[in-house]
Write a structure and sequence with these properties.
The structure is a single chain. By secondary structure, this protein is of the alpha/beta class. It has a single domain (24-130), classed as Barwin-like endoglucanases (Beta Barrel). The protein has 3 helices and 6 strands. It has a 6-stranded mixed β-barrel. β3 (76-81) and β4 (87-94) form a beta hairpin.
Length: 141
Amino acid sequence: MTFKKTLIATLLAITVCLPFTFDTAHSTGKPSHKFRQVGTASWYGPGFHGKKTASGTRFDQNKLTAAHRSLPLDTVVKVTNLDNGKTVKVRVNDRGPYSGKRVIDLSKAAANKLDMTSDGTARVRIEVAEAPGSNQSASSN
């Protein structure tokens, strides 16, 4: 393929896909309490422990935190494992996951609460529990 055709194909792909890369939670900076997402969760831990997250804090695999692609940092979400009904509240402090079609990456501690560490992934539902900057105090950390 020539450079011109490649450039046109790339621009077309960006134009078609761009509207789907942002949701209202990301674009407005405030997630709706009606935000609900279902998909596959994964978890991360030892290899990232102590490294800086997108929020600037150090990742602690023993805290109840998560990475999400678009929810504003510091949002608290309730994550429900749809296979066993277990739930956990986590604070979004990082970006990702960038593997496959996963919707959230949980800390090891959060994955343990959902009983998904041995499987590595689980089908989950994500719901906003607390918007960033709200006066509610999250018991997730």
